[in-house]
Amino acid sequence: MTEQKNNRSLRLLLGCGILLVAGIIYAWSILNKPLQQSFSKTELSFCFTLTLCFFCLGGLVSGLISNKVSIFIRMILAAVCTGLGFTLSAVQNGNLLLLYLGYGVLAGSGIGIVYNTVIAATNAWFPDKKGLCSGALMMCFGFSALVFGQLADKLFAVETFGWQRTYQLLGAVAAVVFIAGAWLLKMPAAAAKKQLEDTDGDVPTRDMIRRISFWKLFVFFTLLAAVGSAAIGFGKDYFLSVGLAENAAVTVAGLLSIFNGLGRIVSGMAFDRLSLRKTQILTSAVAIVSPLLALLAVVMNAGWLGVIGLCLCGFTYGFSPTMSAALIAAFYGGKYFPLNFPVLNLVLIPASFSSTLAGALVTASGNYLTVFVVLTALSVVGLFVNLSIKKA
Question: Is 0.90 surpassed by the pTM of this model?
Fold first, then answer.
Protein backbone atom coordinates (compact mmCIF):
# COMPACT_ATOMS: atom_id res chain seq x y z
CA MET A 1 0.00 0.00 0.00
CA THR A 2 2.88 2.37 0.79
CA GLU A 3 4.35 1.69 -2.64
CA GLN A 4 1.07 2.58 -4.27
CA LYS A 5 0.50 5.77 -2.28
CA ASN A 6 4.01 7.06 -2.99
CA ASN A 7 4.15 6.25 -6.69
CA ARG A 8 0.74 6.02 -8.23
CA SER A 9 0.22 9.73 -8.94
CA LEU A 10 3.41 9.72 -11.00
CA ARG A 11 2.30 6.47 -12.66
CA LEU A 12 -0.98 8.11 -13.63
CA LEU A 13 0.82 11.14 -15.07
CA LEU A 14 3.07 8.79 -17.06
CA GLY A 15 0.09 6.86 -18.43
CA CYS A 16 -1.73 10.10 -19.31
CA GLY A 17 1.33 11.40 -21.15
CA ILE A 18 1.72 8.23 -23.21
CA LEU A 19 -1.97 8.13 -24.16
CA LEU A 20 -1.96 11.84 -25.00
CA VAL A 21 0.53 10.97 -27.75
CA ALA A 22 -1.17 7.70 -28.70
CA GLY A 23 -4.51 9.41 -29.34
CA ILE A 24 -3.06 11.07 -32.45
CA ILE A 25 -4.63 8.19 -34.37
CA TYR A 26 -8.02 9.87 -33.83
CA ALA A 27 -6.94 13.10 -35.59
CA TRP A 28 -7.67 11.44 -38.94
CA SER A 29 -10.18 14.11 -39.98
CA ILE A 30 -7.26 16.58 -40.02
CA LEU A 31 -4.45 14.22 -40.99
CA ASN A 32 -6.24 13.10 -44.14
CA LYS A 33 -6.60 16.61 -45.60
CA PRO A 34 -3.42 16.46 -47.72
CA LEU A 35 -4.43 12.98 -48.92
CA GLN A 36 -7.76 14.13 -50.36
CA GLN A 37 -6.09 15.06 -53.64
CA SER A 38 -4.99 11.46 -54.16
CA PHE A 39 -7.86 9.45 -52.68
CA SER A 40 -11.65 9.66 -52.57
CA LYS A 41 -13.65 10.34 -49.40
CA THR A 42 -14.87 6.75 -49.43
CA GLU A 43 -11.32 5.40 -49.60
CA LEU A 44 -10.18 7.67 -46.77
CA SER A 45 -13.24 6.84 -44.68
CA PHE A 46 -12.53 3.12 -45.04
CA CYS A 47 -8.92 3.76 -44.00
CA PHE A 48 -10.14 5.06 -40.64
CA THR A 49 -12.58 2.16 -40.26
CA LEU A 50 -9.65 -0.18 -40.92
CA THR A 51 -7.60 1.72 -38.34
CA LEU A 52 -10.27 1.25 -35.66
CA CYS A 53 -10.54 -2.45 -36.45
CA PHE A 54 -6.79 -2.99 -36.07
CA PHE A 55 -6.77 -0.74 -33.02
CA CYS A 56 -9.17 -3.21 -31.40
CA LEU A 57 -7.21 -6.21 -32.67
CA GLY A 58 -3.93 -4.72 -31.41
CA GLY A 59 -5.43 -4.36 -27.95
CA LEU A 60 -6.74 -7.90 -28.11
CA VAL A 61 -3.31 -9.28 -29.07
CA SER A 62 -1.72 -7.30 -26.24
CA GLY A 63 -4.17 -8.87 -23.80
CA LEU A 64 -3.61 -12.38 -25.14
CA ILE A 65 0.16 -12.17 -24.67
CA SER A 66 0.17 -10.08 -21.48
CA ASN A 67 1.01 -13.03 -19.21
CA LYS A 68 3.86 -14.23 -21.42
CA VAL A 69 5.31 -11.05 -22.92
CA SER A 70 6.57 -8.20 -20.73
CA ILE A 71 5.30 -4.64 -20.83
CA PHE A 72 8.72 -3.62 -22.16
CA ILE A 73 8.52 -5.88 -25.21
CA ARG A 74 4.92 -4.93 -25.97
CA MET A 75 5.70 -1.21 -25.85
CA ILE A 76 8.76 -1.65 -28.10
CA LEU A 77 6.63 -3.63 -30.57
CA ALA A 78 4.05 -0.84 -30.51
CA ALA A 79 6.74 1.79 -31.10
CA VAL A 80 8.04 -0.06 -34.16
CA CYS A 81 4.55 -0.60 -35.61
CA THR A 82 3.45 2.99 -35.06
CA GLY A 83 6.66 4.61 -36.29
CA LEU A 84 6.78 2.39 -39.36
CA GLY A 85 3.05 2.92 -39.99
CA PHE A 86 3.34 6.71 -40.13
CA THR A 87 6.48 6.47 -42.26
CA LEU A 88 4.77 4.25 -44.84
CA SER A 89 1.79 6.62 -44.86
CA ALA A 90 4.17 9.49 -45.63
CA VAL A 91 5.84 7.76 -48.59
CA GLN A 92 2.84 5.93 -50.09
CA ASN A 93 2.86 8.28 -53.12
CA GLY A 94 -0.76 7.62 -54.07
CA ASN A 95 -0.64 3.88 -53.33
CA LEU A 96 -3.88 3.14 -51.47
CA LEU A 97 -2.80 -0.31 -50.25
CA LEU A 98 0.36 1.16 -48.76
CA LEU A 99 -1.72 3.78 -46.93
CA TYR A 100 -4.02 1.06 -45.60
CA LEU A 101 -1.04 -1.02 -44.49
CA GLY A 102 0.74 1.93 -42.89
CA TYR A 103 -1.97 3.93 -41.15
CA GLY A 104 -4.68 1.29 -40.92
CA VAL A 105 -2.86 -1.94 -40.07
CA LEU A 106 0.49 -0.94 -38.53
CA ALA A 107 -0.30 2.35 -36.80
CA GLY A 108 -3.74 1.11 -35.74
CA SER A 109 -2.27 -2.09 -34.24
CA GLY A 110 0.57 -0.23 -32.53
CA ILE A 111 -1.75 2.28 -30.87
CA GLY A 112 -4.07 -0.56 -29.82
CA ILE A 113 -1.20 -2.37 -28.09
CA VAL A 114 -0.17 0.81 -26.26
CA TYR A 115 -3.75 1.63 -25.27
CA ASN A 116 -4.35 -1.76 -23.70
CA THR A 117 -0.93 -2.00 -22.05
CA VAL A 118 -1.04 1.47 -20.50
CA ILE A 119 -4.60 1.20 -19.20
CA ALA A 120 -4.04 -2.25 -17.68
CA ALA A 121 -0.73 -1.27 -16.03
CA THR A 122 -1.94 2.12 -14.73
CA ASN A 123 -5.32 0.90 -13.47
CA ALA A 124 -3.49 -1.69 -11.36
CA TRP A 125 -2.19 1.18 -9.19
CA PHE A 126 -5.75 2.39 -8.49
CA PRO A 127 -7.85 -0.55 -7.23
CA ASP A 128 -9.86 1.91 -5.12
CA LYS A 129 -10.40 4.55 -7.83
CA LYS A 130 -10.92 2.65 -11.06
CA GLY A 131 -13.26 5.26 -12.50
CA LEU A 132 -11.07 8.28 -11.83
CA CYS A 133 -7.96 6.56 -13.18
CA SER A 134 -9.71 5.31 -16.33
CA GLY A 135 -11.35 8.70 -16.83
CA ALA A 136 -8.07 10.62 -16.64
CA LEU A 137 -6.37 8.23 -19.06
CA MET A 138 -9.27 8.31 -21.52
CA MET A 139 -9.52 12.10 -21.29
CA CYS A 140 -5.90 12.49 -22.38
CA PHE A 141 -6.40 9.95 -25.16
CA GLY A 142 -9.41 11.93 -26.37
CA PHE A 143 -7.72 15.34 -26.14
CA SER A 144 -4.82 14.16 -28.29
CA ALA A 145 -6.73 14.66 -31.52
CA LEU A 146 -7.35 18.28 -30.58
CA VAL A 147 -3.76 18.99 -29.53
CA PHE A 148 -1.78 17.10 -32.16
CA GLY A 149 -4.41 17.59 -34.84
CA GLN A 150 -4.05 21.36 -34.59
CA LEU A 151 -0.25 21.04 -34.55
CA ALA A 152 -0.30 18.86 -37.66
CA ASP A 153 -2.63 21.28 -39.44
CA LYS A 154 -0.19 24.14 -38.81
CA LEU A 155 2.80 22.10 -39.97
CA PHE A 156 0.96 21.13 -43.18
CA ALA A 157 0.83 24.82 -44.08
CA VAL A 158 4.60 25.30 -43.74
CA GLU A 159 5.98 24.92 -47.26
CA THR A 160 9.44 23.89 -46.11
CA PHE A 161 7.94 21.15 -43.93
CA GLY A 162 4.76 19.84 -45.54
CA TRP A 163 2.52 16.90 -44.78
CA GLN A 164 5.04 14.12 -45.45
CA ARG A 165 7.57 15.40 -42.93
CA THR A 166 4.70 16.03 -40.52
CA TYR A 167 3.67 12.37 -40.74
CA GLN A 168 7.28 11.29 -40.21
CA LEU A 169 7.63 13.64 -37.23
CA LEU A 170 4.43 12.35 -35.60
CA GLY A 171 5.54 8.76 -36.10
CA ALA A 172 8.97 9.50 -34.63
CA VAL A 173 7.52 11.32 -31.61
CA ALA A 174 5.11 8.46 -30.92
CA ALA A 175 7.90 5.88 -31.24
CA VAL A 176 10.21 7.77 -28.86
CA VAL A 177 7.45 8.24 -26.27
CA PHE A 178 6.46 4.56 -26.45
CA ILE A 179 10.09 3.46 -26.08
CA ALA A 180 10.46 5.72 -23.03
CA GLY A 181 7.23 4.21 -21.71
CA ALA A 182 8.70 0.73 -22.19
CA TRP A 183 11.39 1.59 -19.63
CA LEU A 184 9.17 3.46 -17.18
CA LEU A 185 5.78 1.72 -17.29
CA LYS A 186 5.40 -0.91 -14.56
CA MET A 187 2.72 -2.61 -12.51
CA PRO A 188 2.80 -2.50 -8.70
CA ALA A 189 4.44 -5.54 -7.14
CA ALA A 190 1.18 -6.66 -5.52
CA ALA A 191 -0.70 -6.54 -8.83
CA ALA A 192 2.10 -8.33 -10.66
CA LYS A 193 1.97 -11.10 -8.08
CA LYS A 194 -1.80 -11.27 -8.34
CA GLN A 195 -1.47 -11.99 -12.07
CA LEU A 196 -0.30 -15.44 -11.01
CA GLU A 197 -3.10 -16.06 -8.53
CA ASP A 198 -6.85 -16.57 -8.83
CA THR A 199 -9.34 -14.94 -6.47
CA ASP A 200 -13.11 -15.23 -6.22
CA GLY A 201 -13.55 -11.93 -8.07
CA ASP A 202 -11.34 -12.80 -11.05
CA VAL A 203 -13.23 -14.15 -14.06
CA PRO A 204 -11.27 -15.66 -16.99
CA THR A 205 -12.18 -14.36 -20.44
CA ARG A 206 -13.59 -17.71 -21.56
CA ASP A 207 -16.02 -17.60 -18.62
CA MET A 208 -16.77 -13.89 -18.99
CA ILE A 209 -18.04 -14.27 -22.55
CA ARG A 210 -20.43 -16.97 -21.38
CA ARG A 211 -22.16 -14.59 -18.99
CA ILE A 212 -25.27 -12.67 -19.98
CA SER A 213 -23.91 -9.63 -18.10
CA PHE A 214 -21.01 -9.37 -20.55
CA TRP A 215 -23.23 -9.47 -23.62
CA LYS A 216 -25.53 -6.84 -22.14
CA LEU A 217 -22.45 -4.66 -21.58
CA PHE A 218 -21.37 -5.34 -25.16
CA VAL A 219 -24.75 -4.34 -26.63
CA PHE A 220 -25.07 -1.25 -24.44
CA PHE A 221 -21.60 0.11 -25.16
CA THR A 222 -22.00 -0.63 -28.87
CA LEU A 223 -25.16 1.50 -28.88
CA LEU A 224 -23.59 4.22 -26.73
CA ALA A 225 -20.47 4.47 -28.90
CA ALA A 226 -22.47 4.25 -32.14
CA VAL A 227 -24.86 7.05 -31.18
CA GLY A 228 -22.05 9.33 -30.00
CA SER A 229 -19.81 8.59 -32.96
CA ALA A 230 -22.57 9.17 -35.51
CA ALA A 231 -23.77 12.39 -33.89
CA ILE A 232 -20.43 14.13 -33.44
CA GLY A 233 -19.30 12.89 -36.85
CA PHE A 234 -21.63 15.50 -38.42
CA GLY A 235 -19.89 18.37 -36.64
CA LYS A 236 -19.64 21.51 -38.75
CA ASP A 237 -22.23 20.43 -41.37
CA TYR A 238 -24.86 19.85 -38.70
CA PHE A 239 -24.25 23.25 -37.11
CA LEU A 240 -24.59 24.94 -40.49
CA SER A 241 -27.91 23.14 -41.04
CA VAL A 242 -29.42 24.56 -37.84
CA GLY A 243 -28.50 28.14 -38.67
CA LEU A 244 -24.99 28.79 -37.38
CA ALA A 245 -22.65 30.97 -39.41
CA GLU A 246 -19.56 29.39 -41.01
CA ASN A 247 -17.06 30.72 -38.45
CA ALA A 248 -19.29 29.83 -35.51
CA ALA A 249 -19.86 26.32 -36.88
CA VAL A 250 -16.12 25.69 -37.21
CA THR A 251 -15.43 27.02 -33.70
CA VAL A 252 -18.15 24.99 -32.01
CA ALA A 253 -17.21 21.83 -33.94
CA GLY A 254 -13.77 22.13 -32.34
CA LEU A 255 -15.40 22.08 -28.91
CA LEU A 256 -16.71 18.54 -29.46
CA SER A 257 -13.31 17.03 -28.63
CA ILE A 258 -13.22 19.01 -25.40
CA PHE A 259 -16.66 17.78 -24.35
CA ASN A 260 -15.64 14.25 -25.33
CA GLY A 261 -12.66 14.53 -23.00
CA LEU A 262 -14.73 16.02 -20.18
CA GLY A 263 -17.23 13.19 -20.49
CA ARG A 264 -14.42 10.70 -19.88
CA ILE A 265 -13.24 12.23 -16.61
CA VAL A 266 -16.72 13.12 -15.31
CA SER A 267 -18.05 9.60 -15.91
CA GLY A 268 -15.04 8.15 -14.11
CA MET A 269 -15.62 10.38 -11.07
CA ALA A 270 -19.31 9.49 -11.09
CA PHE A 271 -18.47 5.78 -11.15
CA ASP A 272 -16.29 6.14 -8.05
CA ARG A 273 -18.69 8.35 -6.08
CA LEU A 274 -22.15 7.09 -7.05
CA SER A 275 -23.72 3.66 -6.86
CA LEU A 276 -23.68 1.50 -9.97
CA ARG A 277 -27.42 2.02 -10.50
CA LYS A 278 -27.15 5.82 -10.26
CA THR A 279 -24.23 5.83 -12.66
CA GLN A 280 -26.20 3.70 -15.13
CA ILE A 281 -29.18 6.05 -14.94
CA LEU A 282 -26.96 9.11 -15.38
CA THR A 283 -25.24 7.59 -18.42
CA SER A 284 -28.45 6.64 -20.20
CA ALA A 285 -30.22 9.89 -19.26
CA VAL A 286 -27.53 12.00 -20.92
CA ALA A 287 -27.35 9.55 -23.83
CA ILE A 288 -31.09 10.06 -24.52
CA VAL A 289 -31.28 13.80 -23.89
CA SER A 290 -28.35 14.70 -26.16
CA PRO A 291 -29.66 13.36 -29.53
CA LEU A 292 -33.18 14.45 -28.52
CA LEU A 293 -32.01 18.07 -28.12
CA ALA A 294 -30.17 17.83 -31.44
CA LEU A 295 -33.41 16.55 -33.00
CA LEU A 296 -35.46 19.42 -31.53
CA ALA A 297 -32.89 21.87 -32.86
CA VAL A 298 -33.52 20.56 -36.38
CA VAL A 299 -37.29 20.86 -35.96
CA MET A 300 -37.07 24.38 -34.48
CA ASN A 301 -34.03 25.47 -36.55
CA ALA A 302 -32.52 26.61 -33.25
CA GLY A 303 -28.75 26.87 -33.49
CA TRP A 304 -28.20 27.35 -29.74
CA LEU A 305 -30.15 24.18 -29.00
CA GLY A 306 -28.16 22.30 -31.62
CA VAL A 307 -24.91 23.41 -29.98
CA ILE A 308 -26.09 22.11 -26.60
CA GLY A 309 -27.37 18.85 -28.10
CA LEU A 310 -24.29 17.97 -30.12
CA CYS A 311 -21.87 19.02 -27.36
CA LEU A 312 -23.80 16.71 -25.03
CA CYS A 313 -23.46 13.97 -27.66
CA GLY A 314 -19.70 14.46 -27.49
CA PHE A 315 -19.89 14.46 -23.70
CA THR A 316 -21.85 11.20 -23.70
CA TYR A 317 -19.50 9.61 -26.24
CA GLY A 318 -16.75 10.13 -23.67
CA PHE A 319 -18.64 7.94 -21.19
CA SER A 320 -18.16 4.80 -23.28
CA PRO A 321 -14.41 4.09 -22.95
CA THR A 322 -14.21 5.11 -19.30
CA MET A 323 -17.28 3.21 -18.15
CA SER A 324 -16.38 0.09 -20.13
CA ALA A 325 -12.92 -0.07 -18.53
CA ALA A 326 -14.26 0.59 -15.03
CA LEU A 327 -17.11 -1.92 -15.30
CA ILE A 328 -14.92 -4.68 -16.71
CA ALA A 329 -12.56 -4.28 -13.75
CA ALA A 330 -15.41 -4.07 -11.24
CA PHE A 331 -17.40 -7.00 -12.65
CA TYR A 332 -14.65 -9.44 -13.58
CA GLY A 333 -11.62 -8.51 -11.48
CA GLY A 334 -8.11 -7.35 -12.18
CA LYS A 335 -6.19 -10.51 -13.02
CA TYR A 336 -7.72 -11.01 -16.47
CA PHE A 337 -8.38 -7.31 -17.15
CA PRO A 338 -5.63 -7.06 -19.84
CA LEU A 339 -7.62 -9.49 -22.00
CA ASN A 340 -11.17 -8.93 -20.75
CA PHE A 341 -11.04 -5.20 -21.52
CA PRO A 342 -9.96 -5.44 -25.19
CA VAL A 343 -12.60 -8.12 -25.76
CA LEU A 344 -15.28 -5.64 -24.65
CA ASN A 345 -13.48 -2.90 -26.58
CA LEU A 346 -14.36 -4.77 -29.78
CA VAL A 347 -17.60 -2.75 -29.62
CA LEU A 348 -15.66 -0.10 -31.56
CA ILE A 349 -15.73 -2.28 -34.67
CA PRO A 350 -19.53 -2.29 -35.21
CA ALA A 351 -19.76 1.24 -33.78
CA SER A 352 -17.22 2.51 -36.30
CA PHE A 353 -19.70 1.94 -39.12
CA SER A 354 -22.34 4.17 -37.50
CA SER A 355 -20.96 7.42 -38.95
CA THR A 356 -20.99 5.99 -42.47
CA LEU A 357 -24.54 4.66 -42.10
CA ALA A 358 -25.74 7.91 -40.52
CA GLY A 359 -24.16 9.89 -43.34
CA ALA A 360 -25.92 7.72 -45.91
CA LEU A 361 -29.22 8.30 -44.10
CA VAL A 362 -28.69 12.08 -44.17
CA THR A 363 -27.85 11.92 -47.88
CA ALA A 364 -30.96 9.86 -48.62
CA SER A 365 -33.35 12.04 -46.59
CA GLY A 366 -31.72 15.39 -47.33
CA ASN A 367 -31.83 16.50 -43.69
CA TYR A 368 -30.83 15.51 -40.15
CA LEU A 369 -34.35 14.85 -38.85
CA THR A 370 -34.57 11.12 -39.57
CA VAL A 371 -31.08 10.29 -38.37
CA PHE A 372 -31.59 11.94 -34.98
CA VAL A 373 -34.93 10.18 -34.58
CA VAL A 374 -33.07 6.90 -35.10
CA LEU A 375 -30.25 7.89 -32.71
CA THR A 376 -32.72 8.89 -30.01
CA ALA A 377 -34.55 5.58 -30.42
CA LEU A 378 -31.27 3.65 -30.12
CA SER A 379 -30.48 5.55 -26.91
CA VAL A 380 -33.87 4.54 -25.46
CA VAL A 381 -33.16 0.91 -26.34
CA GLY A 382 -29.79 1.34 -24.65
CA LEU A 383 -31.52 2.56 -21.48
CA PHE A 384 -33.45 -0.70 -21.06
CA VAL A 385 -30.35 -2.79 -21.78
CA ASN A 386 -28.31 -0.69 -19.37
CA LEU A 387 -30.75 -0.91 -16.50
CA SER A 388 -30.85 -4.71 -16.86
CA ILE A 389 -27.08 -5.04 -16.37
CA LYS A 390 -26.06 -6.55 -13.05
CA LYS A 391 -22.80 -7.95 -11.78
CA ALA A 392 -22.98 -11.72 -12.21
Answer: no
